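Entry 12.
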Amino acid sequence: MFPALFFFLMLSLSVQAADGVISIKSANSCETTADKLVAALKAKGMRIFAQIDHSQGAAKVGLELLPTKVIIFGNPKVGTHLMKCAQSAGIDMPMKALITEDADGNTWYSYNDPAYLAKRHGAEGCEILGKMTKALGAFAAAATNP
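Predicted 3D structure (tokens):
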């Protein structure tokens, strides 16, 4: 019982959710987390639409920002099904991952919760949600585990 309780306690300390965003503490640096995510996405045949380094952009205009990266990715075989359930979901497609480093040096991996997106767009019964939830969780694990 105690190992299971310890596991769930540790999980609750490393996963945060607010307003439809799931945030997971990464065991890796911001750069390594991003690299591991890109590798996992490519391995599953996902298309990477863009990689945005916000801290690099800030530096170009003389501002400082802790490491902050966004990776935009997707697969029309998945996203299209959600948009068929609710076309307004297109505003939230393709999927995005935000990878940040906080002031304490912790790296966080954040992404939109598919259940929240479904509720936002009135697509709660959409069949693709389970597959999306599973895939996004697997990508998060691949990026954040040591």
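Annotation: The domain at 17-144 is CATH 3.30.310.70 (TATA-Binding Protein). Helices lie at 2-14, 30-43, 54-60, 76-85, 114-121, 128-144.
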